[in-house]
Design goal:
Structural class: alpha/beta
Number of helices: 13
Oligomer: single chain
GO biological process, one term: lipopolysaccharide core region biosynthetic process
CATH superfamily of the largest domain: Glycogen Phosphorylase B
Strand order of the largest sheet: 3-2-1-4-5-6
Pfam family, one: Glyco_transf_9
Number of domains: 2
Keywords: Glycosyltransferase, Transferase
Protein name: ADP-heptose:LPS heptosyltransferase
Organism: Halomonas campaniensis
Distance between the termini: 53 Å
Order of helices and strands: HEHHEHEHEHEEHHEHEHEHEHEEH
Mean pLDDT: 93
CATH architecture of the largest domain: 3-Layer(aba) Sandwich
Largest sheet: 6 strands, parallel
Strand content: 5-15%
CATH topology of the largest domain: Rossmann fold
Number of strands: 12
Radius of gyration: 22 Å
């Protein structure tokens, strides 16, 4: 397919977008997916994701169909099943946001005519359209790299983009957020009129994060900086196997005399993600839940290591700038020396954000 032929027939193209790694990576693809669906004529957008992130893909308003990637170590029959499914969809274009030889080979074997990916590593040999990005330099946010690929694909297809989408990239209706808040308030018997600060102390097995003691100290310091502002309710969230971390943080906050509860467990990633919409502020390391909160355009405070590939700029949340705070060790510290982060300075910035949010809510009401 060429941009000329696509423009001539003006039929909505069928696109397959691949981001088949971790949850946070997939959430940072939502701005690119929103960009694709904003084009005219509106494409049919499918995504190829692992089973783990499939519940979020099904919630994404910019996705029409979800295909499951069985992964690198899949048995031969599973690989053949995926190839047959991709062939059967008769896609016009493949957009791989993170290029791998296996996916490039899949697109080529499936006969997808336009195959677009970043021009990185030898996997690019399977693609007939490429965009040089040099992501390893971490010069801009990951979601911006993804957006650049989506925009380049639309240009290649000859599709118009009337106006780029803006946050929230997960525009959950306000009624659904309020319902989640009522549900949690009833489950825990907490005051829904106080600010709710969600705090996720887990790391998802990949991100370097603050320790439970540091997170508890951060919460206490935030409380001390609030002055006469309403005291928050601290809600501790946890992924599978991270319940002990959440409980350790909760116990320390409660022992300091503040209100803290564990967010009730939810059956499935999709239900957990919806529950996050009840937050007034979300605090976490650079993990999947932080990026879910970013897609919801919730105010966020993220804690990042000093490693070049994991900087606050590279893994910036995709919420509005005024809703976003980020903290990392000073330049002279070690890459993963999270103990060198100035917790009092972070607490002051977060408390200032909470007070601004409270003032804004008061002015609206």
């Amino acid at each position: 397919m060429t941009s000329t032929s696509a423009a001539a027939r003006r039929t909505p193209p069928r696109l397959l977008v691949v981001r088949n790694d971790k949850l946070g990576d997939f959430m940072l693809a939502w701005p690119a997916l929103a960009c694709l669906k904003a084009a005219e004529p509106q494409p049919h957008v499918s995504v190829l994701v692992p089973a783990y992130t499939a519940p979020m893909a099904r919630l994404c308003p910019w996705v029409d169909r979800v295909l499951i990637d069985p992964g690198e170590g899949a048995e031969r029959r599973e690989r053949r099943r995926l190839l047959a499914e991709v062939k059967g969809e008769r896609f016009d274009a493949l957009l791989t946001l993170f290029s791998t030889p296996r996916i490039g080979w899949l697109g080529w074997r499936a006969g997808i005519p336009l195959r677009f990916a970043p021009a990185t590593k030898w996997a690019q040999l399977f693609y007939n359209r490429r965009l040089v990005q040099r992501r390893s330099r971490s010069e801009k946010p990951e979601y911006r790299y993804n957006l650049a690929l989506a925009e380049a694909l639309l240009d290649e297809l000859g599709l118009a983009l009337p106006s780029p989408p803006t946050p929230p990239y997960w525009p959950l209706p306000d009624a659904e957020r309020k319902a989640e808040r009522r549900r949690i308030a009833e489950e825990l018997g907490i005051d829904s009129h106080r600010p709710w600060c969600f705090l996720h102390g887990g790391s998802g097995g990949s991100a370097v994060n603050l320790s439970p003691a540091q997170y508890a100290e951060l919460a206490c310091r935030i409380e001390s900086h609030l002055g006469g502002a309403p005291a928050p309710v601290w809600l501790l969230t946890a992924g599978p196997g991270e319940e002990g971390v959440a409980e350790a943080i909760r116990e320390r906050i409660v022992s300091a005399g503040y209100t803290a509860e564990r967010l009730p467990s939810r059956s499935g990633l999709d239900a957990f993600a919806r529950s996050l919409s009840a937050a007034d502020l979300f605090i976490a390391g650079s993990t999947g839940p932080l990026h879910i909160a970013g897609c919801l355009d919730l105010p966020t405070a993220g804690f990042y290591p000093a490693r070049r590939s994991a900087t606050p700029l590279r893994w910036q949340t995709c919420n509005a700038e005024e809703h976003r705070l980020a903290f990392s060790p000073p330049e002279q510290a070690g890459e993963q020396d999270m103990g060198s982060i100035d917790l009092d300075a972070a607490a002051k910035a977060i408390s200032d954000l909470l007070q601004r949010l409270a003032m804004a809510a008061t002015s609206v009401s």
